[in-house]
Write a structure and sequence with these properties.
Radius of gyration: 45 Å
Strand content: over 45%
Structural class: mainly beta
Distance between the termini: 123 Å
Length: 786
Amino acid sequence: MTINLSANLSSGEYAYLRYSTDNFATSNVVAIPTSGTAGFATIPGSANLQGANVAYYVFTSNQSTAPTHTTADYFTLNSYNSGGQNVNAANFTYTVSNPSPTYVWNKTGTADWTIPTNWTPSRTIVGTADLLVFNNGATCSVSSVASETIAGLSVASNTNVTFTSGANLTISNGVNGADFTVDASSQWNVLTTSTFKLILASGATGSVSGAINFKGNGIDTDQSITPTDANSLTFNNGSTFTQDLNSTGNAFGSTGTANAVVFSNGATFIQKAGSNPFALQAPSSRVVFNPGSLFNLAVAQAPSFAGRTYGNFQYTGTGTASVSGGSSFTVYDLTVSASTLTFDVTAGGNIKGNITVVSGATLNMTSTSPPFNLNGSAPQTITVNGTMRLPSGSPMTVASGSTVNLTPGTAIIGDGIFNVASGATLGIGSTAGISSSGNSGNIQTTNRNFSTGANYVYNGSANQITGTGLPATVSNLAINNSGASGANTVTLTNAVTSSTLALTAGQLELNNKILTVASGGSVTAASGNFMATPGRVNFAGTGTVSGTVNFPDVTLAGGVNFGPASNINGSLQINSGGFVNTNAPTFGSASTLIYNTGGVYARGNEWSAGSGKGYPNHVQLSNATTLDPGGTTATGTVFTMAGNLTVGAGSSLYMDYSGHNMTVPLTINGDLNLNGNLSASGVNGGDVIIKGNWNRVGSFAPNNRAVFFQGSNAQTMTGITTFDYVLIDKSGGNLTLANNMVCNKTLSFTASNVANINTANNTVQINPSGNVNRLSGWVNGNLIST
């Protein structure tokens, strides 16, 4: 034991502890090693015999070896007892407790409690300190159970024991640990024709991991376990308590301390008879049902819900069970496995877990004003294979911050009101999605309110439509369809705006509609994606993309980072304020990059490479847009495209805009459709290379730069065009003129060229300052020099 002195020992002063078990008729002395004022002394086990009363005190002495019983008083300098230092007061004392005698039941079949030889050792003396144990692993019945007080009761080792006679059996606090136990492999049954009570006295505790079954033997019988203290009887994970047929009253007593019995996560109470287990006036209760515990009502009677809290509640009775009351309740999982469960309350309630209604069963939920709140902290699932009804005026609300998933076959019907609050998340499994009215989709109540501030997840397992109930604006939209390929498409019914779009699984079919991503929003993809069908994703402002996303058409009105793996299969249209931020997409073989700003736009990351990301297929300028390809930093950035260049009427592409002269050529691997304005650069290197057809209606300013006709395919030049330098540098096919070609400087046929110019009825005109430089190829037709 630890000893604390009032002051440090003086030099030559030693501390001792003197103890006795016979009021100091005899005694022993042990030394106390000290450090400062703290010390430790051990009274040996020989003094700590069962039932011994040990008295002791502390003293100091100038003796360096321990004094004896006869000399201790003579050599004492200072003494310390319960009164303090050198005070005539009582010594310190303690009593060594007697362990409870243990008696083990040694019978199988039916035997009498009161016969001593049915216990091992023989229980010839019945005492309040007795610990009674049933652990023979057999199925046995015990008759003539006595009304007595014992220290403990234990059922263990796969034993199934039934008490068949009424009694008042009291368990005192006489065992280290729990005083009443039923282990996980065992079962304790009470089957009587008269009252049976197991009382856990104050200080006593119980721990049940196995099964307990109370049942009246053919007649109604009051049977109960009545703990005295709060939290003194615990049903552990995997345990079961059954109040079976003809077992009447409150299973844990009708009065007493609140919260005396605790059903832990995984514990089950099955009620087939009797009164509600709460017993006390709400909100007080004899029983606590923790989250994850189960109350199974297996009889058609009114369960207590008003002001009550359940873990999980299941109805398995035959006939209708009705719930009433004016105080809100809380339940986690709510399951109707048979018949009908009807709520007719005036204060609503909180459902924090799943709702399940099996085939053939019905759940009616009536509340006059406060709603039934679906407000769990973890995702909740509603599975209705039977009928779930909200009668007229009855509201049910998915609360802000909560997630409720509706399985594919679930339909919530009735004349009531279904609300999805702002900040809530609704998972939609129906193939018909959610509708604004009518008898389709997961929600079919007469009144339904889907908040624009809520999140919507389409998580069915077959093809779905979003439905007319999806608001035009939502907080977040997710596609998470788990169907097989070809049966995992979610089709947009109407245009929608969302802060984020998550393509978690399945395919999103835009259905030629516009999906707008709000400014600051994002598109993320895991294994989901867009269908390669018409439709447009409109970024209303800044945005980000993550994952591999195959976009159809895209419009930008702000800076968008397309991340490392985005693809454009339709068009990427840059409107006023739009630009590609950091990461460009990869353009598909049928895609078009459209500049549609209506003003001057400096080429950016969207067109910045000769392959891969930032390498466009077709390019189009429209809406009186002027493209400045050099900007302030991109005059030497590769300027090539895989397909056609179309400059719309009123739009312009100036390679020398505002002095930003390109030093690399514009390479058009497809056709040029010039209805607006095009100028070459004003410095060396800023030429035009074309490998498709040249179609000019608008204006071309050559700026003393060359136009190269290249490629292996036949080309046509349409629209009278004046060039400065023209180079025919083809590996195959000829250039055919649909209109006259005018050359101010030099027409060159390069050494590597294998093609000719076919003028047909048109003319190649070389102006006075020009000439022809031919190494391979010629003009086949009209060539004039003026």
